[in-house]
Amino acid sequence: MEKYKDYSGRRKEVAPLQEAFDELLKAYRLKDKFDERLLVQAWPEMMGHTVASRTTSVYIKDKKLFVQVTSGAIKKEMSMNRTKVMEIVEQKFGKGVITEIVFL
Q1: Which of 52, 42, 93 is nearest to 74 (CA)?
Q2: Which residues span the domain enclosing 57?
Q3: Which PANTHER family match (predicted)?
């Protein structure tokens, strides 16, 4: 017989920190925003120095990734390879973080 009954809704098993953090983000409905911020920060790493040095602004609104590029040639190249850029993003962050890319 249990001496004290625990009525809290907390889980009793031990979870790795990453899992616990992900559950916390989901519980407070912050997971999407957190993933979006990580994506914006990872843009230079994902695209490389040449593209990153000519990118002036990267932001996400309504699951659309907006990328402002100063070079017309790079903008055209990125637009033509939009699906490849989406693949790179999906490999790193999974599907659903963004649904579209807009080059400005």
Answers
A1: 52
A2: 33-103
A3: UPF0232 PROTEIN SCO3875
Predicted confidence (pLDDT) per residue in 79-95, tens digit:
999 999 999 999 998 88
Q: How far apart are CA 45 and CA 1, in angstroms?
A: 56
Structure tokens at 32: 């999407």
Give the residue, 65 or 8, on which the prediction is more confident: 65
Q: How many CB atoms lie within 10 A of CB 67?
A: 23
Is 43 part of a structural domain of the chain? yes
Q: 35: closest CA among 18, 22, 20, 16? A: 22
User: For residue 6, is it within any domain?
Assistant: no
- Write out the chain in H/E/C secondary structure: CCCCCCCCCCCCCCCCHHHHHHHHHHHCCCHHHHHHHHHHHHHHHHHCHHHHHCEEEEEEECCEEEEEECCHHHHHHHHHCHHHHHHHHHHHHCCCCCCEEEEC
